[in-house]
Amino acid sequence: MTHDELRELTGAYALGVVTGEERRAIEAHLAVCPECAAEVRDFATVAEGLALAVDQHEPPAAVRSRVLSAIGEPGDARSTFAVSAGRPAAVGHGLRYLAAAASLAAILAGLFAFDAHRRARVAEDDLQVERVRLEAIERELETQRAEAQSAARAAEILAAPDVARIDLSGQKPAPGAAGRAYFSPSRGVVFVATNLPEVPAGRDYQLWVVTKRGPVSAGIFRTDAAGGTVRLIGFPGDANDAVAFAVTLEPAGGLPAPSNTNFYLLGSL
Amino acid sequence: VTQPSTDTVAGPRRGAEDDRVIVTRMASGDSRALGDLYDRHARGVYSLARRILPDGGQAEDIVQEVFTQAWQQAQRYDPQRASVATWLLMMARTRSIDRLRARRAGGRDVGAEPQLEELPDPLPRQDALAITSEMAARLREALRLLSDGQRQAIELAYYEGLSQTEISDRLHEPLGTIKTRIRSGLLKLRDALRDQGA
Asked: Do the interacting molecules here have an ipTM over 0.95?
């Protein structure tokens, strides 16, 4: 091939579309022709740019999880709680709740040094299963360390003999949100939620215990700056006949009864 | 939950260094580093695959394959040969075009196809311009300014992996015409990048 013929291959070579025969010819030529070699380098830079000069699209979020789970990484820690909370709530297995509540109590025992050895032993078997969920809750609880009084109260609720766990799932205004309530009719409710939209100015979220007689307020809360995480410890009063938990958006300070049924989170006992 | 898609390429110096640190972490088995790499480059990889493949679902498969491959081959990544962004995009292009060819061939013998995987050995790059997202935008603009024939030939080569002979067959144009269009078009694009760099 003449020099001009070989030079006609620089573009195809840089774009990666030469055949084997063409490739051998051009590579032999590039070794002895600095001019063509420089051209190939320039064209290779152009080719690199062509990879980026396309309309940009964001891949669907599920692809990220697929990539990470393909290598055995359990996905994004930030979504762990939402994922586990998204499972159907298996309400009614009293022993299971007792065990979960007892393992939470064990964590609090470490933080506030009250004796919960016995409960911790009960919790051990279930601990592995609950590990991922507990880590999310533990992170929540750690940030509360200074609020010893509330935490002690939470411990009381979590370790109460009549405690039950209610998983709340995100509804239409907040499909990605998830919540969980540990509810003891005799002692109160510990509630955590993630991924709620930031609360608008002049409004608060309000947690309701829906009883057969109607909804009872369990308190108001706001989202924190990071990730819409909330915690709430409340006592809804007489709620022995609770059938569901719900979160609505209400005027700041809350209302005695919900003003709307546009639920952000909902879960039944 | 993705971070604001970082300049795959922009903020070239800093971004490229961060990329190398991430790949080094991957090579040492830190699986969280793969998530970091994904957050920085999934958009670019996915967008290129979508440009090449007609089917968005296939582009998602490409993203998964590329990042899995990057995880497996992190120890073999050589920063002397290509930036991390280019490394990922080359994998995306090769895999996407392989799929495209498989569809086109539909069982036919594809022995005479150009051998994409043998090329990307892009010569030492120290003297070359590092592509930034701003330059990519400039390149898009320059592509529009090419003649239709030049742009079509370059796009068929780069985004569909066709050889000059195949492009000639596809467009019913003489081979010499195609060769001239590709080279003259690339020279214009090169000049557009140089103007930008200057």
From this structure: no
pTM of the shown model: 0.55
Element (H, E) at B87: helix B84-105
Rounded to whole angstroms, the maximal C-alpha distance in chain B is: 53
End-to-end Cα, chain B, rounded Å? 38
Taking the CA of residue B147 and the nearest CA in chain A, the distance in Å comes to: 17
Cα–Cα distance, B77 to A90 (Å, whole number): 48
C-alpha distances in angstroms, B68 versus A10, A95, B6, B145? Answer: 32, 42, 20, 37
Query: Tokens 């032993």 label which residue?
Result: A121
Judged by DSSP in three states, B45 sits in helix
Measure CB to CB from residue A78 to each of B1, B42, B46 and give the nearest one.
Answer: B1
List phi, psi (to 5°) of A182.
-105, 115
Each residue of A218-235: pLDDT tens digit? 888 887 765 566 667 777
Selection from A92, A249, A265, A71 nearest residue A179 by Cα: A265
Q: How many residues would you count in chain A?
A: 269
Give me the pLDDT at residue A160, please.
Answer: 84
Q: Do B131 and A37 touch (CB under 8 A)?
A: no
The answer to whether residue A83 neighbours chain B at the CB level (below 8 Å) is no
CB B23 within 8 A of CB B77: yes
CB-based burial, A103-112: b 16+ in 10 Å, e otherwise: bbbbbbbebe
Contact yes or no for A67 and B133 at CB 8 A: no
